[in-house]
């Protein structure tokens, strides 16, 4: 070791001590920030678990949904394995209906023949076999059953033909599949439940809303800095990148205390005015209510189209009748033609009577 190195040794030791102190301070700051962040994450996790115990059970919820789909698939496979005839039952029913329709048509034809004959064979004796009586009794019974089925069908589901029936069947199938998948992931409710509530209130003023948003961004930035996060604000006190505020989990928000206060206060607004609560409108409506509203709109459109066609047909009928009436000769036209005819005839008679006088 040379003399020059010995002279510089105290300086090297002092620099080494400063570097070690600085490193210890940085490690302490990082450890403190991690501790604050872990505490905040723990509090947030506890709050989320208080709202929903299954908030972090991703795999369990997915498995339940897949189980519901698998059960539906297995039910279809069982139906396919049984290999029940698809069309023979419908064909037999159609054949029986056609036979009864044929018997009814024959009965109507015979009844019309008797009406045309009148009292010509009134004094004759009529022979009716027991088989014919049984056959007519079967026809009457089939007509009564068909009438009851038709009335029950109309009361239960309304019109079942055309595009309205197709859309309704398609929506029902999709709704059943969706309900089965969702029901497998939901817990059974205890006690009575209420439909979703959508409270319509007066929207806030734009300036107040902007001020509130700016204040909330500043508050969020302050809390994030206390937790050890690096959050930047622009000149308008708005957070530049809100992704810095996110953490692990679902990032659920707290309960909306303003809406709970409105419900507890008997539905009164800020100025004491009553607010209107709706349970089946907007985005808070359930899937079934939305599809029901679509189904009603389709049926309304079909009814309007039918009424429009009926109105056009009636207008065409009236126009055709008006043209036919305009072509017919009125009473005045007939009287005028008759007078002209009599005048011509009178004139011919007078000319014929003058000719002999001229000849003499």
Automatic annotation (TrEMBL):
Domain Nuclear speckle splicing regulatory protein 1 N-terminal: start-end pairs: 42-157
Region (Disordered): 137-360
BP terms from Gene Ontology: regulation of alternative mRNA splicing, via spliceosome
InterPro entries assigned: NS_splicing_regulatory_protein, NSRP1_N
Keywords, alphabetical: Coiled coil, Signal
Signal peptide (residue range): 1-15
Biased composition (Basic and acidic residues): 137-154, 169-178, 209-232, 286-320, 328-360
Pfam families per UniProt: NSRP1_N (PF09745)
Family: Belongs to the NSRP1 family.
PANTHER family: NUCLEAR SPECKLE SPLICING REGULATORY PROTEIN 1 HOMOLOG
Protein name: Coiled-coil domain-containing protein 55-domain containing protein
Organism: Schizophyllum amplum
Lineage, broadest ranks: Eukaryota, Fungi, Dikarya, Basidiomycota, Agaricomycotina
């Amino acid at each position: 070791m040379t003399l020059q190195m010995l002279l510089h040794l105290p300086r090297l030791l002092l620099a080494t001590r400063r570097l070690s102190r600085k490193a210890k301070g940085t490690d302490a700051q990082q450890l403190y920030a991690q501790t604050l962040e872990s505490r905040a994450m723990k509090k947030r996790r506890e709050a989320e678990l208080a709202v929903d115990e299954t908030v972090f059970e991703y795999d369990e919820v997915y498995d339940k949904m897949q189980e519901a789909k698998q059960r539906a698939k297995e039910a279809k496979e069982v139906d396919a394995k049984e290999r029940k005839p698809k069309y023979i039952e419908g064909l037999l029913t159609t054949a029986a209906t056609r036979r009864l329709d044929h018997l009814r048509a024959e009965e109507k034809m015979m009844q019309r023949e008797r009406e045309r004959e009148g009292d010509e064979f009134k004094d004759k004796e009529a022979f009716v076999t027991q088989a014919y009586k049984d056959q007519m009794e079967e026809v009457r019974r089939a007509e009564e059953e068909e009438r009851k089925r038709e009335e029950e069908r109309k009361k239960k589901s309304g019109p079942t033909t055309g595009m309205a029936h197709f859309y309704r069947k398609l929506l029902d199938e999709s709704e059943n599949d969706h309900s089965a998948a969702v029901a497998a992931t939901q817990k059974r409710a205890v006690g009575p439940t209420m439909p979703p509530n959508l409270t319509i209130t007066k929207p806030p003023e734009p300036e107040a809303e902007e001020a509130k948003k700016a204040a909330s961004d500043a508050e969020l930035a302050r809390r994030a800095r206390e937790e050890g996060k690096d959050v930047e604000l622009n000149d308008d006190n708005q957070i530049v990148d809100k992704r810095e505020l996110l953490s692990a989990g679902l990032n659920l928000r707290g309960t909306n205390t303003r809406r709970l206060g409105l419900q507890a206060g008997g539905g009164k607004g800020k100025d004491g005015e009553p607010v209107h609560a709706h349970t089946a409108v907007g985005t808070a409506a359930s899937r079934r209510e939305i599809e029901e509203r679509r189904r009603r709109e389709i049926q309304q459109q079909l009814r309007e189209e039918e009424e429009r066609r009926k109105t056009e047909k009636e207008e065409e009928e009236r126009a055709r009748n008006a043209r036919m009436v305009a072509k017919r000769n009125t009473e005045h036209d007939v009287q005028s033609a008759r007078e002209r005819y009599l005048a011509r005839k009178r004139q011919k008679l007078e000319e014929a009577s003058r000719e002999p006088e001229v000849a003499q």
